[in-house]
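Homework-ish question, so no full write-ups if that breaks the rules, but can someone show me the predicted structure for this set?
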Amino acid sequence: MMSYYLKLAVRSLRRSPGITSLMVLAIALGIAVCVITLTVHHGMSSNPIWWKNDRLYAVTLDSWDPERPADEDHPELPPSELTWRDAEAVTRSDIPLRSVRMHKAGGVLSSGDSRVPARPERVIARMTTAGFFDMFDVPFRYGGGWKATADAGPEPVVVLSSKVNEQFFGGADSVGKTIRWDDREYRVVGVLAPWHPAPTFYDLNNGAFDDPEDIYVPIGWTEKLELPSGGNTNCWNAEDIQSFADFLNSGCVWIQVWVELPDAASKARMQAFLDNYVAGERRGGRFKRPNNNRLTNVDQWLVDNEVVGNDNRMLVALAFAFLSVCLINTVGLLLAKFLGHAAITGVRRALGASRRQVFLQHLTEAGLLAAVGAALGVVLAGAGLWALRIMYATPRDGFTGLMHVSSWSLMITVALAVCATLAAGLYPAWRVGRIAPAVYLKSQ
Amino acid sequence: MLAMRHISKVFRTDLIETHALRDFSLEVAEGDFVAVTGPSGSGKTTFLNVAGLLEGFDTGSYQLDGVDTSGLSDDARSRLRNEKIGFIFQSFNLIPDLDIFDNVDVPLRYRRMKAADRRERITSALDLVGLGSRAHHMPSQLSGGQQQRVAIARAIAGDPKFLLADEPTGNLDSLMARQVMDLLEQINEMGTTIVLVTHDPELARRAQRNVQIIDGQVSDYRPYEPHAPAAREPVPLAAGAGA
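A: Not a homework solution, just the prediction itself:
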């Protein structure tokens, strides 16, 4: 019977092209707006390293001003970064499987080889420790990360992003070659495969949806080259900072620290380690705020740092409200259409169609309508995301990665289409199935 | 056999109750050709709707071909209607965007017959009414008389035991009306029971038996006598019956 219902549905929809177009457009617009907002929202709120959510923890300690919290809007949270010395102390622990301390830096990258045609390029660097790549499952195209011994040395080694490797080495295997960063040469030990975690959960301070860094350098060079932070530096105390050593010893927070703890026991041990460390520092006159030493997993970290703002959530709610309005309109139009043909339904009932068969016939028509609407909705959503990309995405802006119709969006679209079918078609189909055929047989 | 006993049917609104059928009893034997007449508002159409299982009733009993119809689910009533009853309406009630073939196909579709069986039945029904060559015309391309013949083909395609005809010639001129009546008689002679509701005394006279409904009751109800000889002679109608 389904093929018969489909045949009738096609005939019925073709019989009134105007009202059919209106309904398809209403469903398509509702679905397109939902898919666009959901795609962006999903991209922004998803955990890009979900498989390690119960292993990776951001370390935060509340070394802030005893008089006021680091963030007045969230007084319960400690600062999102650590001081240099706290970061050093915490990462010295052997409890975590891996630990990483890091910060963002800037500089100019140029080729040490005059035969390479690439022009010098201002790049963003991540000064980090050796565990970064394994901890965050960073994919390599060539080579790998550096050894832990290179951190302290520090050794002049560098890991390049695929983009930089493309620019300076034409995408070839550059491991073992040298590249100049500011006024020093570094040996390439690894080249990343394209890697675009969105958001860049490990450092949310300067644009959660920026592309990751161009190069990765051992953090030992920060101290040796007296590199300032290229990201956030927040200080709460008026300290007399005369030298870089003073800065490293100051209460300014600018270092991100992450640890990898494979199980609950190691997490408990790490928490105890942090509490002990802070207790020790208290005795030395620091950490005057209430104890607030945290190990925060990635999911919670994204929430604490408000990666998805209320505006975005409001936009999703509005998109669904818009879809509801579209569906209510469709319900009205379908109802008018179905009841407008009640006489024909009456004839079918007289000829032996049961209420259930009439209901299914009309539900099939609503389903077909929703399927066409959903298909058009996907096209409109694709066009909408493309337009957003054209309007808002820049070469350094990770939004590019968010704004395409993914398989996830398509799945949502199908689910929405099913819901749209049920929502828009159920009531009109039920109503038309309940009409008393005798009333309409005389009136046709 | 169609047997209604002491049927009552009341239409209620907030303000009034209308007794469309009251203590209504009627039996129609297999092979009968019964004309039902009566003044407007007497309950003829309600009788036909109840007989055709399009409407329920409040009290009484109704047996259709040995099946007690009270308490049947909508699915069961629809199946019974589909298998046992063919409808012919005054205004033909063809579905305008289906061609003749697909119109005749409608009741067979709900019987879930195989395509080849359906095709065979549709073709023979259309041949019987003389429209075999018009199978792929649209209803709007046919005259009123032809449309009514299509409706008759649709009614008989499923080989029902009963044909319920509600003023089948009401929208036709006299020539076409005669042709339609000839066709109905031919179908009756093939064994199909026909109940014809009409205002037209001329048509009523062509039935084997006349039944008059007045104020929701059969005015001259006599229980069915299986051995009574079928009479082709028309029963004189009461005054005003043809209104």
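Now go work out the reasoning yourself. Hint: Residues 2-47+309-441 of chain A form one domain.
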